[in-house]
């Protein structure tokens, strides 16, 4: 501190000397004296040995001056103007066109949000995309040995569902060829095209189902339909598969491998599904029931345990059986051998039923041997005209 004070004292002495020599040269001490006041003050301070007091005051002044300078606003050169901000003023339009462009003042980077150009359908941009039932169809190519019934059974569908979905390409449903392309709906039902006057309500009334079932089956975003749009009407049918009748009752084996079991009737009132391992064929009380395939009778009579009422069970070989339920009468006995198309019983109302029909089942194992119907498979995999 003493050395610093001596240096400051010498500085002030020089200032005082400079002031004196400047005044002498001009002849007038007040003509130009920028350091005169400082020099005289320095001389007085030096004479009174006040340098020690002046140093801390000077340090404080420098600190205050530095603070003032740092608080001044920065002046940016014109050539280095700031980039415009992506942020928008409240109420102003969002910079839509600037995202994802890859150049310009707001060149995109990996954090940009790509809004898309609409060239790729997107259900979030357009909820109507993908509501045509054709987008739900699968494609199957016919293999050697295939029949409509076998294909339908493999997909858990009725043969009529496969037939009506491919009617235009199946003039003769019994003549499939290897490599033939078939469309497979996701569930049993009928594919229809929306006409000009069609609405959800009119279609629901026509096919006797709830409008909401049509909405759910087709993933419709709302109740609006478009002319020409394809819809899947769940559970509906265009009718039985057209096949010729045989001369001896029942039906000939043309599509599936077995004869139709109810003479003169082919209307399926309930299809095969997870809660109903059978098909129900509606017919008038007393209509003849025939054996779908040749075999040996293993049950004939009342069967209250399963709710089938009067039944006939036929074994068609190792682990393959057919059952005929709700019969009014039967005309065969246990151990008897029957042939395909032979009359074995008549349609009735016995057991758990709400109307005359034949409850027809096909089993891959002795019926009810496991205590459940888990071994019962879709009869349409075997029946002609299903």
Specify the CATH homologous superfamily of the largest domain.
Glucose Permease (Domain IIA)
* Strand elements, count: 14
In the CATH scheme, what's the topology name of the largest domain?
Glucose Permease (Domain IIA)
In the CATH hierarchy, what is the architecture of the largest domain at level 2?
Answer: Distorted Sandwich
Order of helices and strands: HHHEHHEEHHEEEEEEEEEEE
Task: Profile the largest sheet.
Answer: 10 strands, antiparallel
Q: In the CATH hierarchy, what is the class of the largest domain?
A: Mainly Beta
Poorly predicted runs: 22-32, 78-130, 244-255
Task: Report strand %.
Answer: 15-25%
- Radius of gyration, in Å, reads 49 Å
User: Helix content range of the residues, please?
Assistant: 10-25%
Note the total helix count: 7
Given helix and strand content, the structural type is alpha+beta
List keywords for this structure.
Membrane-bound Lytic Murein Transglycosylase D, Chain A, 3 domains, two-stranded antiparallel sheet, alpha+beta, 14 strands, Glucose Permease (Domain IIA), 386 residues
Describe the protein:
With 386 residues, the protein is of the alpha+beta class. It has three domains: 2-64; 133-234, LysM domain (Membrane-bound Lytic Murein Transglycosylase D, Chain A, Roll); 268-381, Glucose Permease (Domain IIA), CATH 2.70.70. Helices cover 23% and strands 18% of the residues. It has helices at residues 2-26, 36-47, 51-70, 148-154, 159-165, 200-207, 211-218, and strands at 138-141, 181-184, 189-193, 230-234, 268-270, 279-282, 288-290, 295-303, 309-315, 321-330, 337-338, 343-347, 357-363, 376-377. Strands 5, 6, 7, 8, 9, 10, 11, 12, 13 and 14 form a ten-stranded antiparallel sheet that branches. A hairpin with an 8-residue loop joins β5 and β6. α1 (2-26) packs across α2, α4 packs across α5 and α6 crosses α7. The longest helix has 25 residues, at 2-26. The termini are far apart. 28% of the residues are buried.
């Amino acid at each position: 501190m003493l050395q610093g004070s001596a240096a400051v004292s010498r500085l002030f002495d020089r200032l005082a000397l400079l002031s004196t020599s400047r005044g002498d040269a001009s002849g007038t001490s007040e003509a130009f004296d920028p350091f005169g006041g400082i020099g005289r003050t320095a001389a007085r301070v030096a004479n009174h040995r006040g340098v020690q007091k002046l140093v801390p005051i000077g340090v404080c002044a420098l600190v205050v001056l530095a603070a003032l300078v740092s608080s001044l606003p920065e002046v940016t050169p014109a050539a280095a103007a700031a980039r415009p901000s992506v942020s928008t003023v409240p109420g102003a339009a969002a910079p839509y066109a600037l995202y994802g462009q890859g150049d310009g003042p707001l060149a995109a980077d990996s954090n940009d949000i790509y809004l898309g150009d609409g060239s790729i359908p997107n259900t979030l941009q357009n909820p109507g995309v993908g509501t045509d039932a054709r987008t739900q169809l699968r494609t199957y190519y016919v293999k050697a040995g295939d029949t409509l019934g076998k294909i339908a059974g493999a997909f858990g569908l009725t043969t009529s569902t496969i037939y009506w979905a491919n009617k235009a390409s199946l003039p003769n449903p019994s003549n499939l060829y290897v490599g033939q392309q078939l469309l497979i709906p996701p569930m049993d039902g009928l594919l229809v095209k929306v006409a000009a006057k069609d609405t959800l309500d009119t279609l629901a009334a026509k096919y006797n189902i709830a409008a909401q079932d049509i909405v759910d089956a087709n993933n419709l975003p709302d109740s609006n339909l478009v002319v020409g749009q394809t819809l899947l009407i769940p559970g509906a049918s265009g009718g039985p598969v057209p096949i010729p009748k045989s001369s001896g009752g029942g039906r000939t084996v043309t599509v599936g491998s077995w004869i139709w079991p109810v003479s003169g009737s082919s209307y399926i009132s309930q299809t095969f599904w997870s809660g109903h391992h059978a098909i129900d064929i509606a017919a008038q009380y007393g209509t003849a029931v025939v054996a779908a395939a040749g075999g040996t009778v293993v049950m004939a009579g009342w069967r209250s345990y399963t709710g089938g009422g009067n039944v006939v069970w036929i074994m068609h070989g190792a682990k393959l059986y057919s059952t005929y339920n709700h019969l009014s009468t039967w005309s065969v006995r246990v151990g008897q051998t029957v042939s395909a198309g032979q009359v074995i019983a008549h349609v009735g109302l016995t057991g758990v039923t709400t109307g005359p029909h034949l409850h027809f089942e096909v089993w891959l194992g002795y019926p009810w041997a496991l205590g459940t119907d888990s071994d019962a498979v879709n009869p349409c995999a075997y029946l002609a005209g299903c």
